[in-house]
Amino acid sequence: MNIAAAPDIASRQDWPAAIYRTLKDHHVSQISYVPDAGHSRLIEFSHADPEIKTTVLTTEEEGVALSAGAWLGGDRAALLMQSSGVGNCINMLSLLSSCRFPILALVTMRGEWAEFNPWQIPMGKATAQALEIMGVTVLRLERPEEAAEVVSAAASLAFESDQAIAVLISQRMLGRKKWTETQ
């Protein structure tokens, strides 16, 4: 996918491409993630870019450690996850506050708007508070046209102030999900 030649992203409300470009503008060179449909286009852009190292995680907490290691090695990293994975990171987030490592986490939300899966609702409700209790500053991304601005502010806070920052991407931006039956 070549987005370098893409016309004005904001006018098309192509928020994954806007986030990708913003990460590039902030010199993010490592992306780690647990596969997630909400981040699929951003993951595709990252894999297609030879300047970005991508790492598929088995659990989200590995991404916290990878981000800290990237910082120690002189790189900037972003962690992509779904809100249901935030609970897996709680203990590891203590590393960030104890050592003042920056982290930029982009979290696609579940358990919000038009959720079909009742198992997603409890963590969806607790995500922001769980992150804040662990010292992570939480920003919300509610509208596609604000993607570049919000992620840019988050990246600046993370990498220029050595802060832990999470951007919660509204489930409404992802669209409705439905159970599908395979036969």
Percentage of residues assigned to helices: 40-55%
| Whole-number count of domains | 1
Shape: globular
Average pLDDT across residues?
89
How big is the Rg?
16 Å
- What would CATH call the class? Alpha Beta
Throw out a few tags for this protein.
single chain; 183 residues; alpha/beta; Rossmann fold; six-stranded parallel beta sheet; 8 helices; 6 strands
Outline the structure in words.
- It is a single chain.
- The protein is of the alpha/beta class and 183 residues long.
- It is built from eight helices and six strands.
- The chain is globular, with a radius of gyration of 16 Å.
- The N terminus is likely disordered.
- Helix 3 links the parallel strand 1 and strand 2.
- It has a single domain, classed as Thiamin diphosphate (ThDP)-binding fold, Pyr/PP domains (Rossmann fold, 3-Layer(aba) Sandwich).
